[in-house]
Input
Amino acid sequence: MQPDFKEVDRAVNVALAEDVGRGDITSRLVIPATARGAFAFVAREEAVICGLPVVMHLFSKVAPPARGGEAFQASLSANEGVKVKAGTKLLTIRGEVQNILAAERVALNFLQHLSGIATKANQFVEAVKGTKTVILDTRKTTPGLRELEKYAARVGGARNHRMRLDDGVLIKDNHIAICGSVTAAIETARKATPVMTRIEVECDTPEQAKEAMKAGADMLLLDNMKPETIAGIVKENQKYHIPLEASGGINLKNVRAYAEAGVDFISVGAITHSAPWVDIGLDEVKE
Output
């Protein structure tokens, strides 16, 4: 699995401009320009690793030969998406020490953050293993990093919900309030929606869910309901066979209960907005 490299390039350029500016003046002052060395990215804890292609692309941008720089040599010791143990060497970079240290923080930011998302996604996927439920991410992402964060969720085994608002129709509480009812919102959307475009409806109560089923919704998002409440809706849905998604208030302790209630999908905002960064360091390698 590979990220969208057009998006990788954009994100890397922004991050380098933000952090490096006109250059790492500390490294320039204390490290000879001729110094060459090797440094390894090492996992300090167990994690699903994500972001290695991003890091390798980043180092290709720091001091490209076209601008008089020396190309880095990169040696992978771990594969993207693999769960590693603490102490595992991930990637070794060889080249000009000044430039390696200039890129260190940006590289670690990407690697730690994306690995954190992949690890969190994998924890949710493992928690519902053996059920039919598919774990989804959400649009609760860091501005400017959505493509990469959703890539990390996929690396961890989750699937992507909508990437953008134009990916599909999802009728939510404010749409329903303005239209006057669930039925009115669905009927209004249906009139202008292409035949092949799915209409999903967010429901806050069992009554709304039943109304949405009768009104012809293509999918239901059951928001902030307890597993036992959802189980009742699953039973009601036997008449309609509409895909059901649960969301809201779901964590690693209760996600299994939601899956066993019978939903097809569980969307978890915490995968992207609350995943702890993985502890990864950059250590000098003596060769």
Remarks:
- Residues 174 and 180 are 10 Å apart (CA to CA).
- The chain has two domains: 5-117+276-285, 159-267.
